[in-house]
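Thread: quick sanity check before group meeting

JM: Hey all, I'm pulling together slides for Thursday and realized we never actually wrote out the predicted structure for the chain we discussed last week. Dropping the sequence here so it's in one place. If anyone has concerns about the input, flag it before I start.
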Amino acid sequence: MLNVRLYFMEISGKLIQKLPLQSGVGKTGTAWQKQEFVIETIETYPKKICANLWGDKTDALNALNIGDQVIMTFNLESREFNGKWYTDVKAWKIEPVATAPSNAPQTGNGVPAANPLPEEFEGTFVDDSQDDLPF
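JM (edit): ok, ran it. Output follows.
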């Protein structure tokens, strides 16, 4: 039996930097392109996160301006090379906050308060508030 779990992460913040588009040709002769960008979270102690987009997904970054409030959906991926580990933040979608669903809970600064799950996941999780544990 194959047990598969789908995980995705989402973070909102301000786009503070777009790095130059990188491109090349792989060993198999296939062309590739990648663009890195930096998002700063909006919280008491803001954090800066450098992420990257690959292939035609780099076009999404062209529609955004520095200073825009954005939502980034991403995966984390780590790999080992010569005994050291490297982690990539691989974005697969970045969009302005204004395109977020209007029924999503908002914080005071217009950023979604939580990462709402897609409709297909609704009702599939245990309600922790109904457990019988004493703590």
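AS: nice. Residues 59-62 form the longest helix (4 residues). The chain has a mean pLDDT of 80.
JM: adding both to the slides.
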